[in-house]
Design goal:
The protein is of the alpha/beta class and 504 residues long. The protein folds into two domains: 255 residues, 3-Layer(aba) Sandwich (Aldehyde Dehydrogenase, Chain A, domain 1), CATH 3.40.605.10; 191 residues, Aldehyde Dehydrogenase, Chain A, domain 2, CATH 3.40.309. The chain is built from 17 helices and 20 strands. Helix 2 runs parallel beside helix 9. It is globular, with a radius of gyration of 24 Å. The structure holds 1,4-dihydronicotinamide adenine dinucleotide (NAI) and magnesium ion (MG). The site of 1,4-dihydronicotinamide adenine dinucleotide has 26 residues, from helix 9, helix 10 and helix 13.
Length: 504
């Protein structure tokens, strides 16, 4: 049994039992150890201590999982004999089970990721349930068309079919939710899945596999391989019998995945990072904008693909917004996500991310940037964890690395602007295009900006909203394809065109 720091919320007994288990790979409806026998630790980022060990899948395990998923897809009942209505009911049942076991999943994600239990209880888990419920309604509504072709006697129609075996590779910032974004539409379309959770946060995915079993999914429809990117992830993306990879993570890894996908030209969809511009005009509701811009960056500790990390403030209100944000940022309680006295945000995910983020902070200072608040790792009782103060930089040029590159931590660059017509060019001068925000009371300007910004999502007088029903994804190097909504079904289906000679 693991011992947790005394200020931690007592663990749910099922979580305690789960952590004490030997964690295996979930393949073809069975729990199998990695063939190499290798395991690796998952770490609590609030303490740097090991939570438990999980199996480390390598290419031999990937091969067994692909064979199981392939068999389930090619020969099993899931796609070949079950009706759409039956698949729909199973997905809904899974959603009910996730809801019923929500406290366990919330605790596992909070332990593994460090984020507050309040957040996993009220956001990550309920949003995952919503996601499965939204897509549970889709199997019975995925339709083809009849096409009025220009050939006498020919009847032409389309059918939407599942792509096949999908390798879903997800990150650690919202472990359960990022998995749900991919699993739910893939299931709704009738695919079979191999989920590879991030090595930093494998626990909720393993627990989810138990719920798939309890819901009664046929074996092989859902498989979980825990392991590292360069082993498990790479073997999945190279595998000749995997039809599709759905990925969320870094641009660098996405480029490796595209290269590996050349093996069989598998389909690839990518949801990547950003350096999202957040633009506050002088005519905005300033108090709302201050709170909104603060949480746009510090929500989830800046570890969001949509973090509002480039802040542009119109000159007349620059000082006021900056001071307001600094006051807000200083009020943010940072601490272990499992503390009885709940913090607002937790640590960053790992030692590696801590070093990366602090490296950017050092570089910000080195190029003449100044911080109005934050700028340091937190000490005292937090020394063992990976805690960083919410940090606001000023005196930074658009061209500086900290203003251009994704930091993925609690660091924002606040920059003034003078010309409302020029700001679109500055906002769009990035290789990314995931999200953008605009704060203004001028409705015409809001619409002009929404049209001009090169981003998959534009938020006006708000930030960070997503919904299972609304498409989400990136322009430029922020990705390929749109997740969520009916758009996600395009990612998980092939269209077949059937010609019938009715004369013959
Ligand atoms: P990563 O993109 O390397 O990892 C994400 C997932 O990809 C993990 O499951 C990992 O095991 C897997 N992976 C890694 N290398 C792979 C490979 N060669 N083939 C197949 N799968 C592979 O991200 P990482 O290293 O955790 O974080 C680095 C940076 O990436 C962060 O600082 C942040 O800037 C960005 N990032 C962006 C995310 C987003 O939501 N857009 C999420 C996580 C990270
Ligand atoms: Mg990586």
């Amino acid at each position: 049994m693991i011992t947790l720091p005394e200020k931690y919320i007592p663990l749910n007994p099922d979580v305690e039992n789960f952590l004490a288990q030997t964690h295996k790979l979930y393949i073809g409806g069975e729990w199998l150890p990695a063939q190499s026998g290798k395991t690796f630790p998952t770490i609590d980022p609030s303490t740097g201590r090991e939570l438990t060990q999980v199996a480390s899948a390598e290419s031999a395990d990937v091969d067994v999982a692909v064979t199981a998923a392939r068999r389930a897809f090619d020969e099993g009942p899931w796609r070949n004999r079950m009706t759409a209505a039956e698949r729909s009911k199973l997905i809904w049942r899974l959603a009910d089970l996730i809801e019923a076991h929500g406290e366990i999943l919330a605790q596992l994600d909070s332990l593994d990721n460090g984020k507050p239990l309040n957040t996993t209880r009220t956001d990550d888990v309920p949003l995952s349930v919503d996601h499965f419920r939204y897509y549970a309604g889709w199997p019975t509504k995925i339709e083809g068309a009849t096409i009025p072709v220009n050939t006498p006697g020919m009847f032409n129609y389309t059918v939407r079919e599942p792509v096949g075996v999908c390798g879903l590779i997800v990150p650690w910032n919202y472990p359960l939710l990022m998995a749900a974004w991919k699993i739910a539409p893939a299931l709704a379309a009738g695919n079979c899945i191999i989920l590879k959770p991030a090595e930093q946060t494998p626990l909720s995915a393993l627990y989810l596999a138990q719920l798939f079993e309890e819901a009664g999914f046929p074996p092989g429809v859902f498989n979980v391989l825990t392991g590292f990117g360069h082993t498990t992830g790479a073997a999945l993306t190279e595998h000749l019998r995997v039809d599709k990879i759905g990925f969320t993570g870094s641009v660098e890894t996405a480029k490796h995945i595209i290269k590996a996908s050349v093996s069989n030209l598998k389909r690839v969809t990518l949801e990547l990072g950003g350096k999202s511009p957040n633009i506050i005009f002088a005519d905005a509701d300033i108090e709302n904008a201050i709170v909104g811009a603060t949480w746009a960056i510090f929500g989830n500790n800046g570890q969001s693909c949509t973090a509002g990390s480039r802040l542009y403030i119109e000159r007349p209100i620059y000082e006021r917004v900056l001071q307001g944000m600094a006051d807000e940022a200083r009020k943010i309680k940072v601490g272990p996500g499992m503390y009885t006295e709940q913090p607002d945000i937790g640590p960053v995910i790992s030692r590696e991310q801590l070093d990366k983020v602090l490296g950017y902070v050092d570089e910000g200072y080195a190029v003449g940037g100044q911080t109005v608040t934050g700028g340091k790792r937190m000490g005292g009782e937090y020394t063992e964890g990976y805690f960083i103060e919410p940090t606001i930089f000023t005196q930074v040029d658009d061209g500086a690395r900290i203003a251009r590159e994704e930091i993925f931590g609690p660091v924002v660059c606040a920059m003034p602007f003078d010309d409302p017509d020029e700001i679109v060019k500055r906002a769009n001068a990035t290789e990314y295009g995931l999200a953008a925000g605009v704060w203004t009371r001028d409705l015409a300007r809001a619409h002009r900006m929404a049209a001009a910004l090169q981003a998959g999502t534009v938020w006006i007088n708000t930030w960070g909203d997503t919904d299972a029903a609304s498409p989400f994804g990136g322009y430029k190097q922020s990705g390929h394809g749109r997740e969520m909504g009916k758009e996600a079904l395009d990612l998980y289906t092939e269209v077949k065109s059937v010609w019938i000679n009715t004369d013959g």
